[in-house]
Design goal:
By secondary structure, the chain is mainly alpha-helical. It has helices spanning about 5-130, 135-155, 160-190, 200-205, 225-235, 240-260, 290-310, 330-355, 365-380, 390-395, 400-420, 445-465, 485-500, 505-530, 530-535, 540-560, 570, 580-605, 620-645, 650-670, 680-695, 705-715, 715-720, 725-735, 735-745, 750-755, 755-765, 770-780; strands at about 190, 210-215, 265-270, 275-280, 425-430, 480-485. It holds the Pfam family ZW10_C.
Length: about 775
């Protein structure tokens, strides 16, 4: 396609430029017209606003002028107030304050004068009433005066010198009033006390008398009895508790406590024209300790007399304003003395009424009933409040107190037996048994258990029928002597457990553990209390050994015997004494072994004076050795007599065998240790050994019958391990070399059974000179 010509393009562009210029001028002209229109509108709006603002401006200017005028007036008024009104106001305030203070002073003075007037009136009325012996009115006027004085003294910032004088006057009048009341009290309540202040017996308290004067002083004096008037006056003055406390102390010391403590004392009430007299009468006592029923009757009689002639005052005659004084007088006195009365009744009366055995517990219901009636009567007289007291609780808790008392009695009796002499003995044989009453039949459940156990045992017996049966004494304690006190101690334990089987559960448990405590006490007390005698006296040590073994023997089956008779709590395995058995066996063995050690020491000490059995050709040495040997035999024979018929035969033989063995062993050691033994020495040593060999068995005398002791004297080698060795030593001392070699028999002979090769060679070297024959003999000892 051919391109357009330049002239054409230029023409088109020129035409377009003209069109644009025309369009622009049109638009400009339109805008100019619009601007003119807007200017007109703005001018109109401004003119309108100005016309509206002009009146407001005028109003504001008027207000400003008014405010300026008011401000000027305010400043003028303020100036006048500060210069004229404030001065007048200050003067008025000062005058008001002064008048107010004057009014307060005048009011205070008026109040004080009024209180002084009331005090003066109260004192005057008190004096008048006191002269008329109208004690209640006088006490009230005195209290009113005290109240007025307290109000005067409570004034803050006001001191009056007359107050001290008024206080002194009030104190004087109060003491004067109390003096008159005290005189009236002493005339109405008159005590006649014994010369001795200490109450040591019933006879010392018999002179005591208490007089009640119940006749009014004057017929027209007061409506009620004078006692009430005096007591009410004391109450108003706050002295009633002090007077009643002193009266209660005298009542306790000289009347109530003696009546409780001494069964021979009885209270006597005598009616007289001017009143009543309460005194004592002494009679021969039927019992060592007072009966609760009798004591309650005595105390009730005394309190009834007090209630009738002293404490029975109507409540509406007490002080009008003191709330504490509205309590009955009997209740006030009861609160003061009841605790001591209750303790005295428990300690000096009810304690001794607790039954000694469970069979009498049912009879104690009478004591409980009398205690309830006694407290009920005291509550009716208002001596007691409505709550149950410790006295009744103690009486109702008789089962616990019975158990405690029984346990205490058991322990005391047991301790007395433990501290008694040990040497008073009784003989125990396999057939001996505790004198125990027949136990009650077991319950149904226990009966079934026993039936099953019996059936089982019967079956077992059928199975064992053809086998060897044990002796009936297999598990019996061997014949010996024990302390009579220990036998009684075991009887006490059995009787206490028997008592437990018929007691309540709680009592049963306490009694059971009391029996256990008996044995714990024995374990702790006897070794300490008898320590010196057990160490010094062999017989007592042997008896103590038997005592411990005897107790241990019974403890094995003691719990089992009562297992199904005690309370269910103890039937589950707790009712046992088996755990105490090892301790008692150890206690007996340790004591006896300690005595054996002492005896061994004495034997060795005697043998130490034998000069080692050397140089027997010397007369002094031989005499010393012979004396030592004789002393040893004498000591052994003495011990044999001391322990004869005391220790069980087997223990006796073991003990004597041990001691004899100690002596023989020491002699053997001393002789075998010698380096040179001459022929004469050997003969004399043989003589000493023969003495021991012949007289040694004679120390074995366990039984009183001499013919029965031969059996045990023939069994000496069984109890003396060194016996055969000692006999072989004697053979060596008298034998030649060939005989010794024959006794050795190539380590198969009797000599080889007792001595070692070294010991035999040592003896050969000491006995024989150094020759070829000795060397040959020594060569064969191996």
């Amino acid at each position: 396609m051919a391109a357009p010509s330049p002239s054409l393009v230029a023409a088109v562009l020129a035409h377009s430029g003209r069109l644009e210029k025309e369009d622009l001028s049109t638009r400009i002209s339109r805008l100019s017209r619009r601007v003119e229109e807007l200017k007109g509108e703005v001018c109109n709006m401004i003119n309108k606003k100005y016309n509206e603002f002009l009146p407001s401006l005028q109003s504001a200017e008027d207000l400003v002028s008014q405010v300026d005028s008011l401000s000027s007036n305010i400043d003028l008024l303020k100036s006048r107030i500060e210069n004229e009104v404030q001065r007048d106001l200050n003067v008025a305030i000062a005058e008001f304050t002064e008048l107010k203070q004057q009014l307060e002073r005048d009011s205070l003075v008026l109040s004080v004068l009024k209180q002084l007037q009331e005090f003066d009136i109260a004192i005057k009325e008190y004096s008048t009433a006191l002269l008329e012996k109208n004690y209640v009115a006088a006490a009230r006027h005195l209290e009113k005066a005290r109240s007025s004085l307290k109000m005067l003294e409570s004034r803050q910032g006001f001191e009056l010198k007359v107050l001290k004088a008024l206080g002194t006057e009030l104190t004087v009048q109060t003491q004067n009033m109390l003096y008159h009341l005290g005189e009236e009290w002493r005339q109405m309540i008159l005590w006649k006390l014994p010369p001795s202040k200490e109450i040591t017996s019933a006879e010392t308290v018999v002179p005591t008398e208490l007089h009640f004067c119940t006749v009014p002083l004057k017929e027209d004096q007061i409506a009620g009895p004078p006692v009430a008037s005096v007591l009410q006056a004391f109450a108003i003055l706050g002295e009633l508790h002090t007077r009643l406390k002193f009266f209660g102390q005298l009542l306790l010391k000289y009347i109530l406590k003696p009546l409780i403590s001494y069964p021979s004392l009885w209270a006597i009430v005598e009616e007289q024209p001017d009143g009543v007299v309460l005194r004592f009468e002494c009679a021969a006592p039927n019992l060592e300790h007072p009966s609760p029923v009798e004591v309650f009757g005595k105390i009730k009689l005394v309190l009834e007399v007090l209630h009738k002639h002293l404490l029975n005052i109507p409540l509406d005659e007490w002080g009008e304003h003191d709330k504490d004084s509205r309590v009955a007088l009997a209740e006030v006195l009861g609160d003061m003395i009841w605790e001591e009365i209750s303790d005295c009744l428990i300690q000096d009366c009810l304690v001794y009424s607790i039954p000694a055995n469970s069979s009498k517990l049912e009879q104690y219901v009478e004591v409980i009933k009398s205690t309830e009636e006694f407290e009920k009567s005291l509550k009716n007289m208002r001596f007691l409040k409505g709550d149950t007291t410790d006295l009744l609780k103690y009486a109702r808790n008789v089962n616990s107190h019975f158990a405690n008392k029984k346990c205490q009695d058991v322990i005391v009796a047991a301790r007395n037996l433990m501290t008694s002499e040990i040497h008073n003995t009784v003989k125990i044989t396999p057939d001996s048994s505790i004198a125990l009453p027949k136990l009650p039949d077991p319950g149904v459940g226990d009966h079934l258990k026993m039936q099953k156990a019996s059936k089982k045992l019967h079956n077992e017996q059928m199975n064992l029928e053809n086998e060897t049966k044990l002796s009936q004494h297999t598990f019996s304690l061997p014949t010996c002597r024990i302390s009579a006190s220990v036998e009684k101690l075991m009887e006490l334990a059995y009787q206490t457990l028997l008592e437990a089987t018929t007691s309540t559960d709680q009592c049963c448990i306490q009694l059971f553990y009391s029996v256990r405590n008996i044995f714990h006490l024995f374990y702790d007390v006897v070794p300490i209390y008898h320590k010196e005698n057990l160490q010094k006296l062999p017989q007592l040590a042997a008896i103590h050994h038997n005592n411990c073994m005897y107790i241990a023997h019974h403890l094995l089956t003691l719990g089992h015997q009562f297992r199904y008779r005690l309370t269910c709590i103890l039937c589950d395995g707790a009712a046992t004494f088996v755990d105490l058995v090892p301790g008692f066996r150890r206690l007996g063995m340790e004591c006896f072994l300690a005595q054996l050690r002492v005896q061994k020491g004495e034997l060795l000490e005697r043998l130490s004076s034998a000069r080692n059995f050397s140089n027997m050709d010397n007369e002094e040495n031989y005499s010393a050795a012979n004396k030592a040997t004789r002393q040893v035999l004498h000591q052994l024979k003495r011990l044999g007599k001391v322990w004869q018929d005391v220790l069980p035969v087997n223990i006796y033989c073991k003990a004597m065998g041990t001691l004899l063995n100690t002596a023989l062993s020491e002699i053997i050691n001393r002789i075998t240790a010698l380096e040179d033994i001459s022929a004469e020495d050997a003969d004399r040593l043989h003589s000493l050994c023969r003495t021991m060999l012949e007289e040694g068995p004679q120390v074995f005398t366990p039984l009183l019958e001499e013919n029965k002791n031969k059996k045990y004297q023939e069994e000496v080698p069984v109890y003396v391990p060194k016996w055969m060795m000692f006999k072989e030593l004697m053979i060596i001392l008298q034998a030649n070399l060939q005989e010794i070699v024959d006794q050795w028999a190539d380590s198969k002979g009797p000599l080889a059974a007792e001595f070692s090769p070294a010991e035999v060679k040592s003896l050969i070297r000491a006995l024989f000179q150094n020759t070829e024959r000795r060397a040959a003999a020594l060569a064969k000892i191996k």
